[in-house]
C-alpha cells in the first residue's frame, strides 16, 4: 500500500516521528504491514540509547549489547522492511484536519493519514560541562539501565523527589554506598518513600548540597560538592564516587503536539485504555513521550509495535 501524490504533494499513509526504539519498532511493523512508513529521526537518531555503552537488560542479548549498535540494527531492520527514513525535527503540526499536517524544520510540509509520535523524553541535567565530559563514563540518568555496573561501588544520586528516592533505593540494592544529593533541606518525596530512604543502611542523604563538578582521569572518580552554611557561607568538599546519577526529571518531547492532544501537567501525552491511541483518531503516541513511569527501551519498543498495529487497523477502516 504505497503513499500517493495528491495535488503535487505526497500523502503519507503512516508517518512516524522519532528515531528511538519506539519509532524504529513502529517502522518495522508498519513496513511489514505494507504501509510504506515514512520516519523522521529528529536531532538524535537512535534516541537516548546511543549515549549508553552496554545495555544488559534488553531481551535476546545475554552478553549485553552496545546501545548505538542496537539502534543501528533496529534502523537497518526498519529499512529492510521498506521504511523511508529521513533526518529532521517536527516544528509544527495541525492535527485538526485530515489529512494530518506536520512541518519539518519549519519548512517541509507533510500530509499523513496516520501519525505515530515517538519523540521520546529528554532527561534533565544540571548543566555542568562535566556531565558531557563523563557521559557514558560514570554519568547516567537511568539507574535501572546502568545500576548493574556499580555493584559493590559508591554512587551518588541527585534529586529529592519520588523519582530520585526510587533510584536511590534501587541502587542501594546493588551498590555498597549511595549518596543522595539534595539541594533543599528536605525531601519532596512522599512520606512512605522518605521512610524507606532513612531506613536504608547504605543510603546517606546530603541535604543542602549542590554538585558543582565531577573529577576523574578515566571516568568519574568523585564529585565536587558545595554545602550551604546559612545565607552567605558555604563549604566545599570532594566526595569519592564511581557513578553519578541524575534524577531530577525528564521533559517529554511533545511540544509541537500539545495544542491538539491531551497531556499531563508535565507534557506527557495521554493515551487511551492502555493503548497507544490518543483521543484523535489516527494519532498514536509510543515510548517515553507517553510514558512517565517505566522509560525502558523494551517498553518503548513494545509500545512502538502496538502503535503500528493500531495504525494498520485504523487505516484499514478508512
Model description:
This protein is an alpha/beta fold and 318 residues long. The chain has two domains: 4-122 and 250-317, 3-Layer(bba) Sandwich (FAD/NAD(P)-binding domain); 125-246, FAD/NAD(P)-binding domain, CATH 3.50.50.60. It has helices at 21-32, 67-80, 129-133, 143-146, 162-172, 191-199, 297-317, and strands at residues 4-6, 9-17, 38-40, 54-55, 65-66, 84-86, 90-94, 100-104, 108-117, 121-123, 139-140, 154-158, 177-181, 203-206, 209-215, 222-229, 233-240, 243-246, 250-252, 283-285. A hairpin with a 5-residue loop joins β7 (90-94) and β8. α1 (21-32) runs parallel beside α2, α1 runs parallel beside α7 and α5 packs parallel to α6 (191-199). The mean pLDDT is 92.
Keywords:
318 residues, alpha/beta, FAD/NAD(P)-binding domain, 2 domains, five-stranded parallel beta sheet, elongated
Question: What is the compact description of this entry?
Answer:
This protein has 318 residues and is an alpha/beta fold.
Total helical elements: 7
| Unreliably modeled segments | none
Largest sheet: 8 strands, mixed
Number of E-type strands: 20
Q: In the CATH hierarchy, what is the architecture of the largest domain at level 2?
A: 3-Layer(bba) Sandwich
**The CATH C-level class name of the largest domain:** Alpha Beta
| CATH homologous superfamily (4th level) name of the largest domain | FAD/NAD(P)-binding domain
Give the fraction of residues assigned to helices.
10-25%
Amino acid at each position: 500500500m504505497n503513499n500517493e501524490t495528491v495535488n503535487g504533494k505526497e500523502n503519507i499513509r503512516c508517518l512516524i516521528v522519532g528515531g528511538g526504539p519506539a519509532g524504529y519498532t513502529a517502522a518495522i511493523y508498519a513496513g511489514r504491514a505494507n504501509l510504506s512508513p515514512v520516519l523522521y529521526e529528529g536531532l538524535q537518531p537512535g534516541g537516548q540509547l546511543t549515549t549508553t555503552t552496554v545495555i544488559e537488560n534488553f531481551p535476546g542479548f545475554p552478553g549485553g549489547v552496545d546501545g548505538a549498535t542496537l539502534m543501528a540494527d533496529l534502523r537497518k531492520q526498519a529499512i529492510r522492511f521498506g521504511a523511508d527514513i529521513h533526518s529532521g525535527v517536527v516544528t509544527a503540526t495541525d492535527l485538526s484536519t485530515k489529512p494530518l499536517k506536520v512541518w519539518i524544520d519549519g519548512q517541509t510540509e507533510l500530509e499523513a493519514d496516520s501519525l505515530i509520535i515517538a519523540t521520546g523524553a529528554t532527561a534533565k541535567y544540571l548543566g555542568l560541562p562535566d556531565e558531557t565530559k563523563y557521559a557514558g563514563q560514570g554519568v547516567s540518568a537511568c539507574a535501572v539501565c546502568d545500576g548493574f555496573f556499580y555493584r559493590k561501588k559508591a554512587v551518588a544520586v541527585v534529586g529529592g523527589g519520588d523519582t530520585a528516592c526510587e533510584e536511590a533505593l534501587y541502587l542501594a540494592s546493588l551498590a555498597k554506598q549511595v549518596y543522595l544529593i539534595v539541594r533543599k533541606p528536605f525531601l519532596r518525596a512522599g512520606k512512605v518513600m522518605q521512610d524507606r530512604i532513612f531506613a536504608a543502611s547504605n543510603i546517606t542523604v546530603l541535604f543542602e548540597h549542590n554538585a558543582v563538578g565531577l573529577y576523574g582521569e578515566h571516568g568519574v572518580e568523585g564529585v565536587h560538592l558545595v554545602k550551604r552554611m546559612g545565607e552567605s557561607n558555604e563549604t566545599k568538599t570532594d566526595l569519592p564516587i564511581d557513578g553519578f546519577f541524575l534524577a531530577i526529571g525528564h521533559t517529554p518531547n511533545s511540544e509541537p503536539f500539545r495544542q491538539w492532544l491531551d497531556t499531563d501537567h508535565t507534557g506527557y501525552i495521554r493515551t487511551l485504555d492502555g493503548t497507544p491511541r490518543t483521543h484523535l483518531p489516527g494519532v498514536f503516541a509510543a515510548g517515553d513521550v507517553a510514558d512517565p513511569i517505566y522509560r525502558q527501551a523494551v517498553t518503548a519498543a513494545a509500545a512502538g509495535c502496538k502503535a503500528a498495529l493500531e495504525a494498520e487497523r485504523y487505516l484499514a477502516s478508512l
